[in-house]
Amino acid sequence: MRGVNRPLRWEIEDQMKLHGYSLNQVAELAGINAGNLSRALNGLARSITIGQLDALAQIFGKAPGWLYELYIEECMSEEKWSRRRLIPYLVRCAELDRHDCIEPVIFKLLDNPKNVSIIFAVAEQLFQTERLREAEHFYQVVIDEDQG
Protein backbone atom coordinates (compact mmCIF):
# COMPACT_ATOMS: atom_id res chain seq x y z
CA MET A 1 0.00 0.00 0.00
CA ARG A 2 1.34 3.43 -0.93
CA GLY A 3 1.49 5.72 2.05
CA VAL A 4 1.55 9.15 0.37
CA ASN A 5 -2.18 9.86 0.72
CA ARG A 6 -2.85 7.95 3.91
CA PRO A 7 -3.81 11.01 5.97
CA LEU A 8 -6.50 12.04 3.47
CA ARG A 9 -7.80 8.50 3.20
CA TRP A 10 -7.75 8.05 6.95
CA GLU A 11 -9.83 11.19 7.44
CA ILE A 12 -12.41 10.01 4.92
CA GLU A 13 -12.50 6.52 6.42
CA ASP A 14 -12.87 7.98 9.93
CA GLN A 15 -15.85 10.02 8.76
CA MET A 16 -17.41 6.98 7.12
CA LYS A 17 -17.15 5.08 10.41
CA LEU A 18 -18.40 8.04 12.44
CA HIS A 19 -21.50 8.37 10.25
CA GLY A 20 -22.00 4.62 9.91
CA TYR A 21 -21.75 4.72 6.11
CA SER A 22 -20.58 1.86 3.96
CA LEU A 23 -18.32 2.55 1.01
CA ASN A 24 -21.26 2.02 -1.36
CA GLN A 25 -23.44 4.48 0.58
CA VAL A 26 -20.74 7.14 0.53
CA ALA A 27 -20.10 6.59 -3.16
CA GLU A 28 -23.79 6.90 -3.97
CA LEU A 29 -24.33 9.99 -1.81
CA ALA A 30 -21.23 11.69 -3.22
CA GLY A 31 -21.84 10.66 -6.82
CA ILE A 32 -18.54 8.79 -7.03
CA ASN A 33 -18.07 5.43 -8.69
CA ALA A 34 -17.76 2.92 -5.82
CA GLY A 35 -14.84 1.11 -7.48
CA ASN A 36 -12.93 4.36 -7.97
CA LEU A 37 -13.58 5.39 -4.38
CA SER A 38 -12.44 1.99 -3.13
CA ARG A 39 -9.22 2.17 -5.16
CA ALA A 40 -8.52 5.69 -3.89
CA LEU A 41 -9.12 4.75 -0.26
CA ASN A 42 -6.93 1.67 -0.61
CA GLY A 43 -4.09 3.67 -2.15
CA LEU A 44 -4.30 1.93 -5.49
CA ALA A 45 -5.25 5.03 -7.46
CA ARG A 46 -5.29 8.79 -7.20
CA SER A 47 -8.84 9.14 -8.26
CA ILE A 48 -10.40 11.66 -5.88
CA THR A 49 -10.97 14.98 -7.60
CA ILE A 50 -11.43 18.27 -5.78
CA GLY A 51 -15.11 18.18 -6.72
CA GLN A 52 -15.45 14.73 -5.20
CA LEU A 53 -13.70 15.90 -2.04
CA ASP A 54 -16.21 18.75 -1.83
CA ALA A 55 -19.06 16.25 -2.24
CA LEU A 56 -17.61 14.11 0.55
CA ALA A 57 -17.33 17.18 2.80
CA GLN A 58 -20.98 17.95 2.19
CA ILE A 59 -22.24 14.47 3.05
CA PHE A 60 -20.12 14.43 6.22
CA GLY A 61 -21.38 17.88 7.23
CA LYS A 62 -18.00 19.53 6.86
CA ALA A 63 -17.31 23.06 5.66
CA PRO A 64 -16.25 23.68 2.05
CA GLY A 65 -12.48 23.30 1.87
CA TRP A 66 -12.41 20.31 4.23
CA LEU A 67 -9.09 18.45 3.94
CA TYR A 68 -7.72 20.81 1.28
CA GLU A 69 -4.42 21.00 3.15
CA LEU A 70 -4.11 17.22 2.69
CA TYR A 71 -5.42 17.16 -0.88
CA ILE A 72 -2.24 18.57 -2.39
CA GLU A 73 -0.74 15.07 -2.28
CA GLU A 74 -3.43 14.09 -4.81
CA CYS A 75 -1.87 16.59 -7.19
CA MET A 76 1.60 15.04 -7.17
CA SER A 77 3.00 11.78 -8.37
CA GLU A 78 6.67 11.01 -7.98
CA GLU A 79 7.48 14.72 -7.57
CA LYS A 80 5.57 15.63 -10.75
CA TRP A 81 2.53 17.90 -10.65
CA SER A 82 -0.74 16.76 -12.17
CA ARG A 83 -2.12 19.79 -14.05
CA ARG A 84 -5.45 17.97 -14.30
CA ARG A 85 -5.74 17.92 -10.49
CA LEU A 86 -3.74 21.02 -9.55
CA ILE A 87 -5.53 23.67 -11.62
CA PRO A 88 -9.04 22.84 -10.29
CA TYR A 89 -7.56 22.60 -6.79
CA LEU A 90 -5.99 26.07 -6.94
CA VAL A 91 -9.12 27.56 -8.53
CA ARG A 92 -11.30 26.11 -5.78
CA CYS A 93 -8.86 27.27 -3.08
CA ALA A 94 -9.03 30.78 -4.55
CA GLU A 95 -12.83 30.67 -4.57
CA LEU A 96 -12.79 29.77 -0.87
CA ASP A 97 -9.98 32.22 0.04
CA ARG A 98 -7.79 29.31 1.18
CA HIS A 99 -4.51 31.21 0.80
CA ASP A 100 -3.06 28.88 3.43
CA CYS A 101 -3.26 26.17 0.75
CA ILE A 102 -2.41 28.34 -2.27
CA GLU A 103 0.82 29.96 -1.15
CA PRO A 104 2.80 26.80 -0.29
CA VAL A 105 1.82 25.31 -3.65
CA ILE A 106 2.87 28.42 -5.56
CA PHE A 107 6.16 28.41 -3.67
CA LYS A 108 6.79 24.79 -4.71
CA LEU A 109 5.62 25.38 -8.28
CA LEU A 110 8.08 28.21 -8.76
CA ASP A 111 10.98 25.81 -8.16
CA ASN A 112 10.58 24.98 -11.86
CA PRO A 113 10.03 27.87 -14.33
CA LYS A 114 7.93 25.58 -16.54
CA ASN A 115 5.27 25.51 -13.84
CA VAL A 116 4.45 29.20 -14.35
CA SER A 117 2.09 28.01 -17.08
CA ILE A 118 0.03 26.25 -14.39
CA ILE A 119 -0.27 29.46 -12.40
CA PHE A 120 -1.25 31.34 -15.56
CA ALA A 121 -3.90 28.72 -16.38
CA VAL A 122 -5.40 29.18 -12.91
CA ALA A 123 -5.48 32.97 -13.41
CA GLU A 124 -7.15 32.56 -16.78
CA GLN A 125 -9.79 30.18 -15.45
CA LEU A 126 -10.60 32.54 -12.58
CA PHE A 127 -10.73 35.49 -14.98
CA GLN A 128 -13.10 33.66 -17.32
CA THR A 129 -15.50 33.04 -14.42
CA GLU A 130 -15.29 36.73 -13.47
CA ARG A 131 -13.42 36.10 -10.26
CA LEU A 132 -11.19 39.06 -10.97
CA ARG A 133 -9.84 39.66 -7.46
CA GLU A 134 -8.77 36.03 -7.21
CA ALA A 135 -7.31 36.01 -10.73
CA GLU A 136 -5.29 39.13 -10.03
CA HIS A 137 -3.16 37.36 -7.42
CA PHE A 138 -2.19 34.58 -9.83
CA TYR A 139 -1.49 37.01 -12.67
CA GLN A 140 0.75 39.00 -10.30
CA VAL A 141 2.74 35.86 -9.46
CA VAL A 142 3.26 35.25 -13.19
CA ILE A 143 4.35 38.86 -13.76
CA ASP A 144 6.70 38.83 -10.77
CA GLU A 145 8.25 35.56 -11.90
CA ASP A 146 8.73 36.88 -15.44
CA GLN A 147 10.46 39.98 -14.13
CA GLY A 148 12.55 38.04 -11.60
UniProtKB/TrEMBL annotation:
Residues 12-67 form the HTH cro/C1-type domain. SUPFAM superfamilies: lambda repressor-like DNA-binding domains (SSF47413). It comes from Paenibacillus oleatilyticus. This is Helix-turn-helix domain-containing protein. InterPro entries: Cro/C1-type_HTH, Lambda_DNA-bd_dom_sf.
